[in-house]
Design a protein that fits this description.
Helices cover 27% and strands 27% of the residues. With 249 residues, it is of the alpha/beta class. α2 (69-78) crosses α5 (188-194) and α3 (94-108) packs across α4.
Length: 249
């Protein structure tokens, strides 16, 4: 079984996010960038499936500038077999991303596509669902456990009030939740081996797809700071403050 895994390069989750001085976007040029944490879980799961003999090949895919090769090499060092970078200078939005993965599904014919449930920079949570719709494949989102059978896979996912288990026929699209696994640490030998693994660059604008952004980002601003809470000594003091300071009673 061939598996495609999608990964996105985002601002490292340990980094304090800063807004550009003109408010046009988040500053990314001088901060540490890493693989989206949910995508790293997707990579880990695909590699574990190969180690169990369920998968025969794991292909990791990213979309963006040449700097994304660093993220793909990280995935190769984790254990992926080969990587594809769909190069573009455009800001790829969810539908365009789903169309690119649809193209890859048609050319690579995988049995499974695994994506993180969302990227931590935009929190869109759309690509997996859009991709399944474009391909007319079954989808299992927010997966916290996978169990493979002869003709498909059972996907356990958290819902309000409990767990839900879906059975999907393959091929299918799965998006991963944090509880699915814990990604492995990279070893130095695997980092060295990853440098020799194939990484193909394909210009995204040669695919004949509409990749132009259709949503305009007007501005970005930092959230307002929360006021510190105050501990009062009595109910009477609370009433006094509500009357004199807040003037709500």
């Amino acid at each position: 079984m061939k598996i495609i895994v999608g990964v996105k390069r985002v601002v490292d989750y340990k980094t304090t996010v800063r807004i550009k001085s003109d408010g046009s976007d988040v500053e990314t040029s001088t901060v540490k960038m890493s693989m989206n944490p949910f995508d790293e879980i997707a990579v880990e799961e695909a590699i574990r499936l190969k180690e169990k003999g369920i998968a025969s090949e794991v292909i990791v895919v990213s979309i963006g500038k040449s700097t994304h090769q660093e993220t793909l090499r990280h995935a190769l060092a984790m254990g992926c077999d080969r990587a594809i970078l769909m190069t573009t200078e455009l800001s790829i939005q969810p539908l365009a991303c789903a169309k690119i993965f649809q193209h890859l599904a048609q050319t690579e014919s995988p049995s499974l596509i695994i994506l993180g449930k969302q990227a931590i920079d935009t929190d869109d949570n759309q690509v997996g669902q859009m991709l399944a719709g474009l391909l007319h494949w079954p989808q299992g989102t927010f997966a916290s456990n996978l169990a493979f059978h002869d003709n498909g896979v059972s996907v356990t996912r958290e819902i309000d009030g409990g767990l839900e288990t879906l059975f999907l026929n393959l091929p299918a699209v799965i998006t991963t939740d944090l509880r699915l696994n814990e990604p492995r640490y990279l070893s130095l030998p695997n980092i060295v081996k990853a440098k020799a693994k194939p990484l193909n660059l394909i210009a995204a604008d040669t695919l004949g797809l509409d990749l132009q952004p259709h949503i305009e980002l007007l501005s970005v601003s930092a959230p307002s700071k929360k006021r510190n809470g105050v501990k009062l000594n009595s109910v009477q003091e609370l009433i006094t403050r509500l009357k004199d300071e807040a003037q709500v009673i």
